[in-house]
Design a protein that fits this description.
Layout lengths: L2 E4 L2 E4 L5 E6 L2 H12 L17 E3 L5 E6 L4 H6 L5 E5 H7 L4 E6 L5 E8 L13 E6 L2 H9 L4 E6 L6 H4 L5 E6 L3 H5 L2 E10 L1 E6 H6 L1 H16 L6
Helix pairs in contact: 1-8
Length: 235
């Protein structure tokens, strides 16, 4: 298979299957009804998270799926390794890739990006009086923008996991993290003090691919749009 660079991105030739990047983890199971309503049936091995395979065929010979870390979906699409993907709005906010177009809110993966801190210190002083704060997060750009908008300098400690440990061990004052039920925060003595943004998953498209393969990608967007409108698609 040949390939060529267009607009700084590596794009497979038009005769190759479209690649749909899907996130591992919690969203994977929520994608299943949506894919079914869109008429997309990946190889059964796709649903086995213990499988070492990462690329799978589907019932459509013009479409393959790849299963990657949720934080990597946007990168695969932005750089043209996948033409289409399903990605949380939190990831789009963090990376803000200009190469990505997000035409559709899929209504799955509902959660929020929030600030949390220990129960013992929450409410003891007004954050509006802070001049700087140390924050543990895997969202450094979101955290810095959030506090900069209030004139507060955020000293970010970039962690990829176990954020909830940071305040209790004296590493940071607060955390900025993705919250679904809040049970992990509660189990670690933290309380959610502010919601930065509500989050759902979006269908995302590489802008260059949309220009070079408009009919194929337009048809796929239409299938997902119809699936979102179908009863039970987001259950």
């Amino acid at each position: 298979m040949t390939a060529e660079f267009r607009a700084g991105q590596l794009q497979p030739e038009a005769s190759s299957p479209l690649i749909l990047a899907l996130p591992k983890g919690r969203i994977l199971s929520e994608c299943a009804p949506l894919l079914a309503h869109a008429g997309i049936r990946p190889d059964p091995e796709y649903a086995d998270e213990d499988s070492r395979s990462l690329r799978f065929t589907t019932n459509d010979p013009a479409l393959d799926v790849v299963r990657v870390r949720s934080f990597d979906v946007a990168t695969f699409v932005a750089f043209g390794a996948a033409q289409v993907g399903i990605c949380g709005a939190d990831v789009l906010m963090e990376f803000d890739y200009p190469e990505i177009y997000a035409p559709l809110d899929l209504g799955i993966g509902a959660c929020r990006v929030s600030v949390a801190e220990p129960v013992a210190t929450a409410g003891t002083d007004d954050p509006r009086t802070w001049s700087r704060v140390r924050v543990a997060t895997k969202y450094p750009n979101i955290a810095r923008r959030h506090y900069a908008a209030r004139g507060i300098h955020a000293d970010v400690v970039h962690l990829n996991g176990a954020m909830e440990l940071a305040p209790g061990l004296g590493l940071t004052r607060v955390i900025v993290d993705l919250v679904a039920t809040g049970s992990t925060l509660k189990a670690n003595g933290l309380v959610e003090t502010e919601v930065i943004s509500r989050v759902t998953s979006r269908l995302i498209v590489n802008r260059t691919a949309l220009k070079t393969r408009p009919e194929e990608i337009g048809a796929l967007i239409a299938r997902f749009r119809a699936a979102v409108a179908s009863p039970g698609a987001a259950s």
